[in-house]
Hints:
It catalyses: dTDP-4-dehydro-6-deoxy-alpha-D-glucose = dTDP-4-dehydro-beta-L-rhamnose. Pathway: Carbohydrate biosynthesis; dTDP-L-rhamnose biosynthesis. By secondary structure, the chain is mainly β. It has a single domain (2-182), classed as Jelly Rolls, CATH 2.60.120.10. Helices cover 10% and strands 39% of the residues. The protein has three helices and 13 strands, in the order ββββαβββββββββαα. The chain has helices at residues 33-38, 166-169, 174-182, and strands at 2-5, 13-16, 20-22, 25-27, 48-54, 59-65, 72-78, 80-87, 98-104, 110-113, 117-123, 128-134, 143-145. The strands form three sheets. Strands 1-2-10-7-12-5 form a six-stranded antiparallel beta sheet, with no helix packed on it. A five-stranded antiparallel beta sheet has the order 9-8-11-6-13, with no helix packed on it. β3 (20-22) and β4 form a beta hairpin. The longest helix has 9 residues, at 174-182. The mean pLDDT is 95.
Amino acid sequence: MKATEVPRIAGAYLFEPTPYGDERGFFCRTFDADVVRSVGLDPAAFVQDSVSRSVRGVLRGMHLRSGAGEAKLVRCSYGRIFDVVVDLRPHSPTYLGRASFELSGETQATLYVPAGCAHGFQSLTDTSDVSYRIDRPHDPAEDVTIAFDDPDLAIDWPLPVTSMSERDRRAPSLAEVLKHREG
């Protein structure tokens, strides 16, 4: 497994395993504490694992947490997704930077999203399973959502959106979220 720093998002990493394939399919390690530790992250900091299943065109995001934020490891374990991270940490050298990735069950790559960054994805296949490893328990009172189609974000989602949560549909603009965070 190798770790590569994401240039547009300070402190974000892409962890790429080495799948070993044969006639049965493949095997790969999707989490390695030593590799995580090698980039300065504490593997024991992750306290919660979650999974979502989405159908083609479903969009989930853009989400982040207020307060101390939430760091997470995100992996598409089945299918393919278009994954986006936006740096909303005011003192970060990559503040307002954006990065997108295609994560898939074929590669099993894992993206580390630092606390203070917004995250979202769109399912590109009929079924996409996404696994999250999160560094603190979820508190719904800290949920923050930004409009996925905000022109300031200028995210070029690859497919028409077929479905999203009511919360995502009613999400405020990036400017509104930033104003609220500053005030």
